[in-house]
Amino acid sequence: MEFAELIKTPRVDGVVLHRPFMPTVEGTLCLTGHHLILSSRQDNTEELWLLHANIDSTEKRFVGSLGTIIVKCKDLRVIQLDIPGMEECLNIASSIEALSTLDSVSLMYPFFYRPLFEVIEDGWQLFVPEEAFKDLESMTDEWRLSEVNKDFSVCPSYPSLLTVPKDIDDESLCKAASFRHGGRFPVLSYYHKKNGMVMMRAAQPLTGTNGRRCKEDEKLINATLCAGKRGYIIDTRTIAVAQQAKARGGGFEQEANYPQWRRIHKAIERSNVLQESLIKLVEACNDQSHSMDRWLSKLEASNWQSNVKEILTTACLAAQCIDREGASVLVHGTEGTDSTLQVTSLAQIILDPACRTIRGFEALIEREWLQAGHPFHQRCAQSAYSNGKPRSEAPVFLLFLDCVWQILRQFPCSFQFNENFLIMLFEHAYASQFSTFLGNSVAERVKLLLSQKTVSLWSWVNRPQELERFLNPLYEPNNLVIWPSVAPQSLLLWEGVFLRWNRSTKCLDEAYQEMAHIIEYNKELQNKVNSLRRQLAQLETEDSPLQTP
Amino acid sequence: MEHIRTPKVEQVKLLDRFSNKSVIGTLHLTATHLIFILHHHIASVEKLSLTTSGCPLLIQCRNFRLVHFVIPRERDCHDIYSSLLRLLRPVSYDELYAFSYNPKQNDQQREEGWQLIDLAAEFERMGVPCDQWQLTDVNREYKVCETYPRDLYVPITASKPIIVGSSRFRSKGRFPVLTYFYQEKKAAVCRCSQPLSGFSARCLEDEHMLQAISKANHNSRYVYVMDTRPKVERHELNALANRAAGKGYENEDNYSNIRFQFVGIENIHVMRGSLQKLLEVVGTRSLSMTDYLVGLENSGWLRHIKAIMDAAIFLAKAVTVEGASVLVHCSDGWDRTAQVCALGSLLMDPYYRTIKGFMVLIEKDWISFGHKFADRCDQLDPDPKEVSPIFTQFLECVWQLTEQFPQAFEFSEWFLIQIHEHVHSCQFGNFLGNSQRQREVLQLKERTYSLWAHLLSEKQNYLNPVYSPSFAESHPVLEPSTQACHFKFWRNMYHQYDRSMHPRQSILKQVLTFKESNRELEGTVQALKTKLQKFGVSTSPLKPQTPPRERSLPPRPQSLILGAPLLKRTVEGSSATENGYGELTGSFGSKNEPAVVTLEFGVARMTC
């Protein structure tokens, strides 16, 4: 298909762009296959360069022959374009509509994007399961890397290599897979070096109404327990929801069949509920005419902060079981691709200092989200302004990032990255020139030949020039487990994302710069003192023979 | 001492408010302190019914601290309880801590402390007296208005008869006087109390007074009169009883060149109830997000904060943009009026955003103009209906501004919290009593110490490390956003002592440390260079990236009230049990955490 077919009017002059907290700009609007570009004619600079994929929804209005298109983006920005001429406006609007809702993945921009930088370190090769397993091997020999899923037939949403208990053979894995939703049998998520406890994740067991059991599944998870020890199963659903799942063939682990495990139910919402929560929150944040009462009640009604609290609390609980109770943990919800991953990845941030570095955090996202089969393509197809009937969109990953931000706020010196890094990940998960977040699983990405045809986000982010923006000047490596407070008074609205476009951040940005500057200056002074000391010491040793004849 | 029956009880358990943690220690009772907690801080004491572990004693403090003791023997508990009840109700000013507090300073130091703030110099700084405004001696003997200071500034055309006539027409004699002068536009901020218009009464002198204010400003043809009371309250003023009592508002027909502006800030009773509701909500254990947000909304607290901010912004805009003078009043002109005038001035004048300037502002709009600190803060033999968190709200508004403009203020939030602490501690003389006159009668300057000197001596604890003096040049007038979503709950104020709720690492503390380290390193670099020069090595001069300090500051004192937030809150890691993620209690038996709060130190001070 040619994009040109979809672009009836590629260029319109005299378009006025309105953006919050920025002066209006008049210029020429150009549509390309992947971008909406507005350049002001005066100095020929591009004032706006917007990926069609970033457009969540559009609205058009007419006053006489002056048309207005309101463009609502997935990064939550809302801009307005005044377009002279009704026909031009209609053409532009329908082109944007068509280009921003292309169904085929292979037409997405990452397949057309050619980097203007030299790829020094290929992001596709950075985080391979073999490397992670080498680290594990240096700590314990209880685990092996199984190739049972090498053609993705046992579990289509799992990667080809999986870490499983050493004593469980592939045949047992296949049987356990048939007992778990989507074939997602229990696999290792995290090994806690401090006490050798582990966190595993899976999907719900398919017990159904007649209480089916699977000896291999039981054996598999029992293999992770030390003799005489018990473990915890954290089911991210309430007991009521888990009960209902039985009727649809799902269910939960029965005490009788898993006597060494204690089950705890939490109440993390399902994805469609989360999507509604996001829509309501953004609506509340964008309405500037609210009285205080209305704002607080709409914030409450959105339930967003409650979701943050619940997810974070569950993650803390998992971490507490591992670190404080010295017990192993199995986490699952229904499919094991959403709330499960929120919990396992956040627990690792709490427990493992490595996850608080930039590389470590990237590795965590690779391991616990991309390779673990979070369906990014489905979940991030639409954002808060989608007005169509929701299919499987949900801000699962955004909620995870929000929770990370909450921990970052409480431990501002323990993370190598800053808030900008999290916001950048949010943006690229929804629309990007890079293909890291394309597809729903490793299998899909392999099929799309992403690593050959497209550029990884990590190839770009990890360049020193880019990284600079994302470094936290306050960072001091902290090897402790960090326990965040989950009291509602301690959890804040993530302004950097949700209020980003309805306030001027100039004053806050400048204050941040000043803080970074103070710390930078400190390093300079340290170096200066050290070099002067060296110089002095040298002179003194040169002088000393003369002084003591 | 005769009120203390049991000065010491051992094996007392101190329970944490939000978790199941507790520590055991000894409770001491002295004339001014219950170990660590100053009596004046205590808002209420509650004796709960006996439990198996002992008799609980619940103490609620004015700095929003809640202390829960468990005392093994009921008799001890009762003794402590009844002693406290008596100690918390001082019957005369002499019993207040300020009169026994002695920081080991001589008389000269004490005097110097009181001379730090000079309001005459402050008016001079604003450019008053000038060709349109003069100092009047009409209240030299407090004869015209008891609750005003002696020195008052009025328009030059306001003669004595006009002033006296106007004062008789205003509640408590609080006639319109100058509180802030915006030199650039020659616009004035004046304050007064409500007119006693009652049954359609008018007062020509008062009308003249407003004329005089109007004439003093050539930049604007009109004067704004801001009535800060909400419409409902104004409607009530139309009620017979109120009008019989003479209360009222300006009849627009009688005043020329006036623009009336109504802003709805609620009265002291509503504010008191609002804070009470807020504290109830945030004091709940295992609070859910829904209950928190619903409770925050129902308390109305942030709505009131926004109302005050909106009013101050209106004031600042009228003065700085329109160049109009503004007269602000409420009922008596010492609560809402003080909030709006002080906050409005702070928006307009960068000086008030410095440490010294903020002290001056409080001294001017709050202390000298007679905000009734004794009544509002429940210092002495209180009438519960007079208590209200009016000043707390002002501090909170300033905090909201510091959040929006992190570089605009020389001080950090700990300065605000410390001032709040001492408004209630009665340790210093500044806030005692209800008016300047009363303070003179109490001879506070001779018998007590000034808080400002104390705060200045600890200045480095209150500095905002990212403060930029040049910010004032680019933003002489602050224009905050008043969108509801930009107002936040002030956790560090209302949960100052609830350690588990705070960030475990403080950016503020970190950056302050870096700044101090930078200063030391600059010194070291200089010293090393001097040494190198002796060897005949010339070194390039160090380019200071931050302006050098005028003088070095004294070392940071260790025994700080704010030692808690500044020093202790860097504890990393902390414990999981303290946060109560729940559901694991007793399952496999969690290990005991070491006690975090030690009760042994800080006896001389009021907090642990």
UniProtKB/TrEMBL annotation, chain A:
It is a peripheral membrane protein. Residues 123-498 form the Myotubularin phosphatase domain. GO terms for biological process: negative regulation of autophagy; phosphatidylinositol dephosphorylation. Residues 508-542 form a coiled coil. It comes from the Eukaryota. GO terms for cellular component: cytosol; endoplasmic reticulum; perinuclear region of cytoplasm; ruffle membrane. One of its GO terms (molecular function) is protein phosphatase binding. SUPFAM superfamilies: (Phosphotyrosine protein) phosphatases II, PH domain-like. InterPro entries: Myotubularin, Myotubularin-like_Pase_dom, PH-GRAM_MTMR6-9, PH-like_dom_sf, Prot-tyrosine_phosphatase-like. It is found in: Cell projection, Ruffle membrane; Cytoplasm, Perinuclear region; Endoplasmic reticulum. Transmembrane segments: none annotated. Keywords: Acetylation, Cell membrane, Cell projection, Coiled coil, Cytoplasm, Endoplasmic reticulum, Membrane. PROSITE patterns: PPASE_MYOTUBULARIN. Belongs to the protein-tyrosine phosphatase family. Non-receptor class myotubularin subfamily. This is Myotubularin-related protein 9. It comes from Sinocyclocheilus rhinocerous.
Automatic annotation (TrEMBL), chain B:
Residues 113-494 form the Myotubularin phosphatase domain. It comes from the Eukaryota. Keywords: Cytoplasm, Hydrolase, Lipid metabolism. It comes from Sinocyclocheilus rhinocerous. It is found in: Cytoplasm; Endomembrane system. GO terms for molecular function: phosphatidylinositol-3,5-bisphosphate phosphatase activity; phosphatidylinositol-3-phosphate phosphatase activity. It is a peripheral membrane protein. This is Myotubularin-related protein 6-like. Residues 536-559 are annotated as: Disordered. The gene is LOC107721921. GO terms for biological process: phosphatidylinositol dephosphorylation. InterPro entries: Myotubularin (IPR030564), Myotubularin-like_Pase_dom (IPR010569), PH-GRAM_MTMR6-9 (IPR048994), PH-like_dom_sf (IPR011993), Prot-tyrosine_phosphatase-like (IPR029021), Tyr_Pase_AS (IPR016130), Tyr_Pase_cat (IPR003595), Tyr_Pase_dom (IPR000387). GO terms for cellular component: cytoplasm; nuclear envelope.
